[in-house]
């Protein structure tokens, strides 16, 4: 009798009235007052920055998201980030930023680097993945590049020892390795790959690997491996699906993240952020061309998807997960539908047309 009842139970289980899958999951239990609107520092930036940050503002307003922006005008040709902006970010803890132009040479420091050092935003995170409906050469790409953000060659820590001799300072920090493994652990990622050049940079990158190896022993459920940066680039363009979470020193991470973004479909929809112990700045993840060219600005055809997805990351950081889910779902619907896409994604739409479509797709 018991044996006969098993198939019957299986049939009953499949009936709608016996479907115990919840229609709406409990994402988190807020504390009293968690729904109060949060202040976020907004830096529109240069080039396409005002276009795409304006797009985020429109979507947040349409969703009635529990936040409001404190806007500050900052431009890449300034000598430094104004102190009032730094104080605003320190007060609010969170910032959304458009691209800032970085002068080439001339001794002018990058304001992007200044912000990261001033706020100790030591971890940069870029998520490179395939979006449904957007054809690319490689499928099943879902790579998170975590790079050290305040040290190494890319940090601007360099000086002229004597005329004609420039020395670049490169350090190593255990905290970026800890952050990478902690991210993988909390996000159910299975593997962390350390990217290095320790075969040549034996001391600096050797120390980086020692830190990664030591931290990896504390996370036995996460696979750990290492790869030399030049081989890494070759593997990225030939078999990117082998990578999961990648942790890198500063300069390599910038190159690896942009390569991974190009493989997954372009820098126009890769979200990212910079985080430290106390503050976070969210911006377009992959930096190549993030300020845009003059034509994009004049024609108002900049792709807002990257910053929209970065703002979804920001909403999760602020513990507003349902708003993040709604925004990401709406963006995916618009991209999958294919009717409204900017030129870099094979379409002809303006920024505003994409935004209108995203707002229409909101649940």
From TrEMBL:
Entry's Gene Ontology cellular component terms:
mitochondrion
Q: Which biological process annotations from GO are given for this protein?
A: isocitrate metabolic process; tricarboxylic acid cycle
Tell me which domain of life the UniProt entry assigns to the organism this sequence originates from. Eukaryota
Q: Which GO terms describe its molecular function?
A: isocitrate dehydrogenase (NAD+) activity; metal ion binding
Please state where this protein is localized.
Mitochondrion
The record's section on SUPFAM superfamilies has: Isocitrate/Isopropylmalate dehydrogenase-like (SSF53659)
* Family matches, as InterPro entries: Isocitrate_DH_NAD, IsoPropMal-DH-like_dom
**Keywords associated with the record:** Magnesium, Manganese, Metal-binding, Mitochondrion, NAD, Oxidoreductase, Transit peptide, Tricarboxylic acid cycle
Family that this chain belongs to: Belongs to the isocitrate and isopropylmalate dehydrogenases family.
Concerning PANTHER family, the annotation shows:
DECARBOXYLATING DEHYDROGENASES-ISOCITRATE, ISOPROPYLMALATE, TARTRATE, ISOCITRATE DEHYDROGENASE [NAD] REGULATORY SUBUNIT 3, MITOCHONDRIAL
Its function, per the record, reads: Performs an essential role in the oxidative function of the citric acid cycle.
UniProt-recorded name of the protein: Isopropylmalate dehydrogenase-like domain-containing protein
